[in-house]
Amino acid sequence: MVISEIGLSLPVLPLPTYPRGYQAHPTPRAADGDKYLLGVGKGDITGPVVEINFAGYADTDQVGSGLRQRLYSRAFIIGDKSKPADRFVYLVIDTASGDTAVRNGIVEGLKALGGDYAKYYNNRNIAVTGTHSHAGPGGWWNYLLPQVTSLGFDRQGYQAIVDGAVLSIKRAHDSSPRAISTHHHDAPALPPRLGRQDDGRAHLVPVHGTSLLQNNTLVAGDNKGVAAWLLEREVTRGTGSLAGTAAEGFVAGFSQANVGTRRPTLENSTCADGLSQSCHGRGPEFRKLDLGVSSCFEIGRRQFAGALSILGALSAKSTPVVGPTVKSFHFYHDMAFSKFRLPDGTEATTCPAALGYSRTRGSGRESGVVRDFGVLRTPSAEQKKCQEPKPILFDVGEMSTPYAWSPNVVDVQVLRVGQLVVIVSPGEATTMAGRRWREAVGAEVRGLIGRDPVVVLGGPANTYSHYITTREEFGIQRYEGASTLYGQHTLAAYINLTVSAAHHLAPDASSSPAPGPSPPDNRKNSLSFITGPAASYARGATARAVFVGANPRNNLRLEGTYAAVERLESGGQWRRVRGDGDWFLVYSWKRKDWLFGTSEVTLEWYTGEDGAAADVQPGTYRFKYYGDSKSLFGCI
C-alpha cells in the first residue's frame, strides 16, 4: 500500500452558511498530530439510468428517464503506521443507504482480488454508508420490502455499485501518498487535517438527500453529489484562493450523520388538499418549479461553502488527532425479542421489525402513501405488546415469504483513530438520538483513550434499518417513530451494544467481538420482474436502438454514414459490416421539441428479410450512430 505517514487535526469550527461568491483564504498552520497511513479513491457506481424505479421515495411512478450526474463511491482508508493490519475503510456511496447485499458483494470482491486487498479488508473493518440520495436507481437491496417498487432485484445495477465500490477501495489502497480531512455539522469539532498537499476530505453533514423532488426522474447524487462535485472541482481547477492546493484526483466525500430529522426543505410545507399525504416540503428555490433542481444545487452549494471555509481555516484553528491507535469492530445482532438491561437496571426488549400507521402520513416534508398492509400478516400478540405504543401497519420483521421483507439482524460497528470515534449507524438517527448515542459512547471510551474523545456518527450504513428515535420521539408516533423498526428501546439497544463492545477499541485490544448471527443473503433467491433489453437476438429478428440525436440536415455526411452496424472480431477490434446504404439497416429521425431543437434517432437492423440473413453470422454486434449537433448560435 503506497500511502504516506500523515498527521491529522480536528477542526474546531462549526459548519456555517456562506453567501454566493464566498472565497476561503489559507491561514497559518497549526500543530500536527500523530502520523497515520491514509489513502483515498473514487469509483463510478452509476447503474441503469432508465426504466428502473428510483430508491428512496418508494414511488412506483418515479422511474429513471436519464442522467443529470453520475454516481460514485468514495473510499477513505486510515491505518496504524506501526501496525498496518489495524486499519478501516469508510465508504461514502451515492445511494439511499448502505445495504447487506452490497456490503457482502464488496467484501467478496476484495477477497477475489487476493493479495493485500484480501489480507487487509474484511467484514470487520469496512463501513458502507450511503449519502441518502433519493435520485438513484433502486433494485439493489437485500430485502423484499424496498425491492417491491423496483419490481425486484436488478443484478445490473447491484453489480455496478459493488464493482465501483471495490474499485474505489483498490484505488485508495494503491494510491500515491494521500491525505484526508473531515468535519461534522452537528458536533463542535471533527477530524482530520493533514501535513501535506491535500488529496481527500470527508465531511459528515446531516441533511436529507431529498432536494430533488419525487417527480424527478434524472439520476443524480442530490445535494451531497453537488457539494462533492463543487469541492473536487474548486480545489483542483477552480479560480478561488484555494485552487490548485489539492493533488490531482482529490476526493471529497460528503457523508450523512444523524440525518433522521434534518431535511433540505427549509421553507414551510405545502399541502394540496389538507391531508398530510399530499404535503411536500419546499427548498430555498421552490418558486422556480424545476423539480427541485435549483434548491438541490443551493443546498449542495451551502455544504460546499462551509467545507471550503473549513479547508481554508483548518491549518490554524484545529486540534491535533493524537494517539497512534487505529481500531474497529463489527458484529451482527438479532433485534427480534432481544432482552438487555437499561442503565437503571430494568429489563428492556427490542422487537421484530415493524412499521407503524403514521409512516403513511409522510414526514411533513415528503408525502406519504396510504395502503392497507394488514391483509399480508396479522401481528402476533407478543409483537403488538412489544411495539407499543406503535399501532402496527406492516409487520415486516415476521414476514419471510418468499424471503425476508426487512432486517431483524443489524450491523453494530464502531471505528477509531486517535481520539476520533465514528459510530456507524445502520439507521437514520434523529438529532437527539444521535446526540445521546454519541454522549454515551464518549463517556465509555474516555478512559481507554486517555483524553476527551471526539465522537461522530455516520450512516445510514451497512444494513438499512429505517429510523432510530429517542423513547420520547417513539412515544408520540410521528413519521420517524412509526419508522423506528424495533420498538421504543431501539436507541437504548444500539447504545448498549456499542458501549458493551467499546473495550475492543483499546490500544492493546487484540480480540474482536463474536461475529453474531449472519443476516440472510437474498441475492441468489431474490425475485425480479424487471424487463431488460434483449441480451441476444435470433437470426431473423429485428434489432433496435434509440439515441438522443441531432438533425441530419446539420451534416449530410456525404461519402459517410449516419448509422453503422459493427461486429466484434476475434482480436478485440470492431469491424463495420453495414452502413446506412444497406437496405436492411434503417435510420429514422424524429423531432422531440421544436423550441429547444431536441430530436431522437432510431436504428433498426432487419436480419431476416429475404437475403438479409444470408451474411449475418453469429457473434457480437453493436450499433454506431453519427450525428452533428448545432448550438443556439448556429455553430455545428
Automatic annotation (TrEMBL):
It is an enzyme of class 3 (hydrolase). It holds the Pfam family Ceramidse_alk_C. The keyword Lipid metabolism applies. GO terms for cellular component: extracellular region; membrane. One of its GO terms (biological process) is long-chain fatty acid biosynthetic process. Its cofactor is Zn(2+). Residues 506-527 are annotated as: Disordered. Binds 1 zinc ion per subunit. Residues 531-632 form the Neutral/alkaline non-lysosomal ceramidase C-terminal domain. It catalyses: an N-acylsphing-4-enine + H2O = sphing-4-enine + a fatty acid. Zn(2+) binds at H132, H208, E428, Y467. Keywords: Hydrolase, Lipid metabolism, Metal-binding, Sphingolipid metabolism, Zinc. PANTHER family: CERAMIDASE (PTHR12670), NEUTRAL CERAMIDASE (PTHR12670:SF20). This is Neutral ceramidase. It comes from Parascedosporium putredinis.
